[in-house]
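Appendix C reproduces, verbatim, an entry submitted by the partner laboratory led by Prof. M.T., so that reviewers can inspect both the input and the predicted structure.
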Amino acid sequence: MSFFERLANVWKGFFGLFIADVERNNPEAVYESAIEERIKKHKELKKAVSGIVYLRNKLQSELEQFERELAEVQVQIPIAVEEGEDDVAMVLIQRKDELTAKISSHQVELEKIGAQAEEAKSGLIAFQAEIEKLRREKEEMLAKKASAEARIQIQETLDGLSTDADIKALENVRTGIEKIAAEADVASEIKGQSLDDKLAKIKAKTANTAAKSQLDELKKQMAARKGAQEAAAAGAKKTM
């Protein structure tokens, strides 16, 4: 093998790989191309079948015409013989033989063409069924492709999520919640121990002490007045 032949084979191989890659990445276009090609062939086959059917119909029509003519000739022959028209009878007999031969030939040909026509029609119907089958396959395969791609995308997304990152995020959330709870506990524990709270307690205690002193003083004054009144009352009784 020469250098150029080997080079041609290499390029042919590269081109084949390129085409295969393009076909894998564009399945819908490949299916559409295949369907269009089959539709084209179906039209060609339909045209060929129509030619066979036309020939069958033509033979059938000619056969029926020959049979009608033969029936007429067979009626005319006895009449010509009875009337002594031998030359006419001879022509009619020859015509009868010709028609009989044509009828026999047409029957054989019609049987053969008829079988071909039925076979061609069956093939045409089967070819149409193949086109419909390919269309269904296209829809099914494209749906399967879309489903597979969606599953791959989901899996890649899940694979991209780090478990460590999830755990760390949960720990951060837990720590934050615990800190908030601790702040609440601290607030509860130091309640009443702040400087302001202590001053408030002292002020309240001081206020209570002052009020109690005033109360005691008031009681003493009332007791002194009462004692003075009783003494005055007792002196008045003595004077009387």
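Residues 10-19 have pLDDT under 50 and may be disordered. Additional entries are available on request from the coordinating office.
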